[in-house]
Amino acid sequence: MAIITRLKVDNFRNLKGVDLELNPRFNLFFGENGSGKTSLLEAIHVLSVGKSFRTSKVEPLLAEDAAEFLVYSELDTGSRIGLLRASSDQPILRLNADSQSSWKEVASLMPLQVINSDIFLLIDGGASIRRRFLDWALFHVEHSYLFWWRNYRRLIQQRNALLKQNPFDLQNQLNVWDAEISKAGEEIHHHRNTLLAEYQPFLETTIETLMPDAKMKVDVEYRKGWPEGVCLYQALVQSRDKDARFKATTYGPHRADLVITCRKKSISEIFSRGQIKLISCALKISMGKFLVDKKIQQGVQDYSTSFLIDDLASELDQSGCKSIIGELNRTNNQCLFTSISHDALPFLSELTGASGKFHVEHGKITADKPAV
Predict the structure, then answer these.
(1) 327's torsion region: left (phi>0), alpha (psi -120 to 50) or beta?
(2) What is the bridge-based pairing of β-strands 364-367 and 218-223?
(3) Degrees (nearest 5) of the Cα angle 287, 293, 298?
């Protein structure tokens, strides 16, 4: 699952007329800055989840003078996914020629992990980034989670709207909302907490492999978003006066965080920039391993996560790059790398073979033919 065998991209940023057959394991796209390497990874991401990892707008994704862009993929399962998108119209998304009203089915078929310059945000970014990291995994392994997550988000929006209106019977109305919110919120907390307990051994093993000389244990703690010792309903009741003043809900899983420390200190205070990138990569690679293991337990065979890896060598020495590539090689995942040159990651170059190297120049992508 999730192995892209063929990829077509047209009028996406500077990419035009791209039609590629991809290696099922390792693919390297090399070329000068601005040639279109990152745009290719971005196009795959947009096809999978409907959003770019670089912008929230559609207009920058369209090639100059183009009215719409196309991204199309064929998977090893036989599934075909196509997206046609114009700036002003609703996207046309099709799975095996059937129109899709949302990205739910497509996202489940193409689980992606992105490793790029934003990888550091998993450590030092806002809590919402780490919540999304957990929620992404739960979407793929726990079928009921999306229902609870959507229901909770809707209830919080309605409670916040009520707080802003501040009606005369606010307390009575909050009794109803808080009961519903606590039910959905406790479900979300339960699923996140359970996932973290099962995922943590995979993370610890991966960090030890990538950083064998560090000799410092990285700790991961899940903070649920309301005080310990009380249920969510009690926390909501106790915070009503404060919530009424600030017109927003103070407690709940929308305030949760995944706190990553070492010796009870921030990772950023102890490790170098390169080591932080290794830890951040370990978070994503180990989550891919966890998903495969979980799917096997659920009776799903040949499951994999695709990794989109942009400029791996940034902030890392050759030893760090080799460790990450080696760890990915021990999985069954498809990986798409970008690099300035074909020999910038020599260990990767050995793994791609003749079929997995592509030269990117001015929006054109061609298979790199080995010298005779």
Answers:
(1) alpha
(2) unpaired
(3) 120
- The answer to whether 159 and 194 have CB atoms below 8 angstroms apart is no
**Do the strands 357-361 and 26-30 form a parallel or antiparallel pair, or are they unpaired?**
parallel
The amino acid occupying position 281 is: C
CA distance 203 to 197: 11
304: CB partners within 8 A, 6+ apart: 1, 2, 3, 288, 292, 331, 332, 333, 334
Is the pTM of the predicted complex or chain greater than 0.90?
yes
Per-residue pLDDT reduced to its tens digit, 316-358: 999 999 999 999 998 889 999 999 988 888 777 777 665 689 9
Strand partners, 94: 82, 99
The amino acid that residue 220 corresponds to is: V
Tokens 């298979």 sit at which residue?
367
Residues 275 and 174 in one domain: yes
Whether residue 41 is predicted with pLDDT greater than 80 in this model: the reply is yes
Expressed in percent and rounded to 5, the helix, strand and coil fractions of the chain are 45, 20, 35
Domain range for residue 231? 119-295
The total domain count for the chain is 2
Whether residue 39 lies inside any domain: the answer is: yes
Q: Which two tokens stand for residue 202?
A: 């995979």
